Amino acid sequence: MPPSLTPLLCLGLSVGLRMPVQAGWSEHSDPLELVVTGSIRKPSLSALSSPVVTSGGTITLQCGSRQKFDRFILTKEGENRLSWTLDSQREPGGQVQAVFSVGPVTPSDRWTFRCYGYNRKRPQVWSQPSDRLELLVPGVSGKPSLLTQQGPIVGSGQSLTLQCHSDIGYDRFTLSKEGEQDLPQITVLQPQAGLSQAEFHLGIVSSTHGGQYRCYGGHRLSSEWSAPSDPLDILVAGWLPDRPSLSVQPGLSVASGEKVTLLCQSWSPRDIFFLSKEGAADPPLTLRSQSQAQQHQAEFSMGPVTSAHGGNYRCYSANPSNPYLLSQPSDPMELLVSGSQTTVVNLIRMGVAGLVLVVLGVLLLQAQDSQRRTQAAART
Prior knowledge:
- By secondary structure, this protein is mostly beta strands.
- It folds into 3 domains: 4-134, Immunoglobulin-like; 145-237, Immunoglobulin-like (Sandwich), CATH 2.60.40; 241-340, Immunoglobulins (Immunoglobulin-like), CATH 2.60.40.10.
- It is 10% helix and 41% strand.
- It contains 1 helix and 28 strands.
- The protein has one helix at residues 341-379; strands at 4-8, 33-37, 44-47, 59-65, 71-76, 82-87, 89-90, 96-102, 112-118, 133-134, 145-148, 153-155, 159-166, 172-177, 185-187, 196-204, 211-218, 232-240, 245-249, 253-256, 260-266, 272-277, 285-288, 290-292, 295-302, 311-318, 325-327, 333-340.
- Strands 12, 14, 15, 17, 18 and 27 form a 6-stranded mixed sheet that branches. The chain has a 5-stranded mixed sheet with strand order 20-28-26-22-23.
- It is elongated, with a radius of gyration of 36 Å.
- The model is unreliable at 1-17 and 340-347 (pLDDT under 50).
């Protein structure tokens, strides 16, 4: 990238000529500094926590590089252009960096930043600009909904797509993942009145896809974004080698209205267990592990069960260091839910009553037959 000339006000030393005041001439203008950018490799710019910041809050931005810069400059782009300059600090790994505190941040303006590095001996020679970092300031307008057709648990090799939709006519959406800097945006070409949606195609599933996601809606003519959607956890199965086992107590067939316990067990030291029902859109049930006889397990209690509880279940295990990366799934277990317990009891009662009636009928017939034989013998 060839060097470029960038005018910036009140940064470093000024250059240019100040003409003496003469008859017919005004006083000289404020100094204009010209700096050369692009001759040195660009630094990196990141938000220490997340680029999502609440209105009125402050955020910490870090500009860093392996180039031995003496100072870093952070610039806010747009109409209300601002800049901050800090001396660099050397880190143990050999990188130099500067940490900027920015705020208060409000949704009435776009908060887009770049940073540069330079050395004191050549204060007008700056590095290439860092990649642009845009902050997202959630507003109060109606939150959209975020979902995935694949379900909350995905496996390696699947293609992952997240869909953000709203009954408000937003014409752009953005997606944020907890702990990451990227805020991919999608423009809705023709939002319909009262309905808008966007699909974020995240590619083939890998371990990096595990995490918590939210989406936001906005309008192109405004810098404000909506309130965040409810969080969506994406869990990636198959990244831990073990495969837990799943069993049910008291048995695979249970009457409606009864209680049942699904037991997930693993011989590997696992701290978290997940129970998922096939085809269910709801998040899986989660329990902490309990150790018994060198096994790690969790008991998922259900009840009173209904026909809606019937279906195929699988369980998974995970560790708290990365709860979004799961083990292999257990073998599927089908839970069968029969009619209600009251119905079964009534059927048993009806059966017993019917049996009593049959026995009484047989005894009555035998008594009548015995009486006829006695009367016949007496006549003879």
